[in-house]
Amino acid sequence: MKNFKTSQLFALIPVFSFMATQAQNVSTDSLIQKKSRLTEEVTTLKTSLAKSEAELNAVNALLAPPSPKWTYKGISGISITQLSFSNWNTGGQNSVASNIYVNAELVYAYQKLMWNTSLNTIYGKMYSPAYNWYKADDNINLTTRLGYSLLKENKLYGTFLANFQSQYSKGKKSPLDQNYISNWLAPGYLNLAAGLDYKPYKWFSVFYSPLNGRLTFVKDSYLAHQNSLGIGVDKKFNFRLGSFVNNVINLTVTKNISVISKLDLFTAYDSSFGNIVMNWDGLLAMKVSKYITSTVNIGLKYDDKIKTTDKTGNAAGPKIQLKELIGIGLAYTF
Question: What is the distance between the alpha carbons of residues 289 and 98, in angstroms, rounded to a whole number?
Answer without folding.
Answer: 20
